[in-house]
Amino acid sequence: MRRVLCCIFFVCLSVALQATVILPIEFRELVATAPVIVHGQVVDVRAEWADGRRSVETFVTVAVTEYLKGDLGEQMIFRVPGGQLGRYRTIFVGAPEFREGDEVVLFLKHSGPSYPYIIGLSQGAFRVVPEPRTGRRMVTTPIVMGRGGDEPERIVRGDATRKPVTIDAFRDAVRQVLAGARE
Prior knowledge:
Low-confidence stretches: 143-148
Mean pLDDT: 84
Order of helices and strands: HHEEEEEEEEEEH
CATH class: Mainly Beta
Structural class: alpha+beta
Oligomer: single chain
Helix content: 10-25%
Number of helices: 3
Distance between the termini: 70 Å
């Protein structure tokens, strides 16, 4: 009898677990899904309370260099879940963090009058960094860049073939996917 009561007690105390699951997204799908693809530089990062002060969201302002798809103006603001406000910090697994001065290429989506958000969290945010030896601007590639064809691509964590590409090669890859989608 004590075992039954003990089991009932623990069942009553149990809490539903929640988790964030991020499925890998292919480059072609990322390009096709995003209504806005923007290349620019982060000029402001600010955190604000969300959900009645239960969590923090970060709002990032980007000075646009160019749009590869869509148009939201010369400067645009998007939101990222999580952030730090004073001593309070909300961590959202998979959400990228930004700093003023970061050069980025973003794949964004928005619904209604709300702020745009990054598709696939970190999967839709590409950093542009100078190559140490040559100074060329390289796009870090957290996902496979698309080899063409209609077959799904296997995405392997730690794949040695995932190397940074020049910003020009990245633009060309996006434009190639966009041209293929129109056909």
